[in-house]
User: Fold this.
Amino acid sequence: MIGRLMARLPAGSFAWLALHELRLGIRNSSTKPWILQLGIALLVIWTLIGVGTGLLLRGIEIVPGPEAYAGVTVAAIAVFSFMATQGMLASQRTLYEAGDLDLLFSAPIRPRVVIAAKLAGIIAMIAWTYALLVLPIAIPIAALGHPELFGVPALLAALALAAGCIGLAVTLMLARIAGPRAARTVGQIAAALAGGALFLFSQLWSHSDDRSRSGLGRLFDQILASRAASHGIGALPGRAAFGDPVAIALVLGIGAGLFLLATLGMQTWFLSSYRAGGMKLGGKRKAKSRVAGHFHASLFASVFAKEWRLLARDPSLAFQIVLRLIYLAPLFLLAFRDNSGLPFGPSLAFGGVVIAGQLVGSFAWLAVAAEDTPDLIAIAPVTKAEVERVKLLAALAMALPLIVLLPIAIALETVPGAVVALAATIAAGWLSGKIEVAHAEPAPRSAFRKRRSGSWIAGLLTMMVSVGIGGSAAVAVYFLERLPGL
Assistant:
């Protein structure tokens, strides 16, 4: 369908290029046919749920009030945070990985049109992702008796416009500050922080006292009490979602204004960042150590040093590690709450085991599957099983400084429970790594920039193992906390 629309437009025009970017985004996100068919089936089911909900609400009048406006505002804040992360990641791929900007900038097309089309493609993919989640519910309800909810697509479009422009602006600013050598790594870390910031903030807020209300729930209470979502600028998301034409015009106008500002005001930054990002980053430099210093006496030391250096050089791995640290922090802070009556030790044990399984599994999968020199390893005087075992040990060693944090927190409650949790954590990490190693499909390391996960079967087995061991560890820690003298 996109191809037919492109055939009716002048080649090289803004609309033609924007549709081309959307088609490339959908093509790059496509997966195996059976997974695509499963996704279509789930979308149909989700739409049928929306139709059923619309029929149930057909005779019920929906009167928006302060509570509804506050709820929409909180939802918009949450969605926007994830949209901005997606915009940053898409902007980095456009600048450093797409590989088509040389051709586009050398074509008889104004650079401003190329930049606008690239940004439009980023925004379209952001909107596409959340439209599949929200619109199958909102559109049937609106069509079956509540037309005011046709403002929901307008609000999503405005959020996508703002998130795409802000994501591009942050990416260009980081590239300008950090320089071409560190721009990609810093950008990945910034995206991880942006994606987990709302979650971390809500968890910290919810654990700041003894109240059982979640962080987002407390944000809702705060917005409702201050009436920030009932008047002024803060009321725009809620009023737009419920069909206020003035609010819809304003939010779309703000989004369109940001789009024009980004395409007109960031052209120089975009071009300079692209040229800098295309330069050879690894310039010649004099070696600071002897060649002998790069060799090690044992196979484990050699493999560990190699994998650690590759980890430090890979921005996508830095992104994964920082993201896991963000979700690890709230679990670690559970140990320092004042209300010690809750089973914090078991909760920490379960969370630590699950995180360890995912972390070590990812390290092991990358260490075994992302291999640029399989021929060299094949002719080495060691067996394949020995190399894989050593790589698994190296993955566990790299993850060890992170996975011991929660057992240390459990030690504040019970030392034997901490020992049990640590043993379960190591066991879950080792078994998860073994599963990933068994299902890994070797490929050059450069091929893993677009594919950051292993086999879905291995992922499912890893999750089952982690949850099973984590549940057992939680039960053991629970009873150890209640033994006298422990």
Notes: The CA atoms of residues 417 and 476 lie 7 Å apart. The mean pLDDT is 77. The radius of gyration is 26 Å.
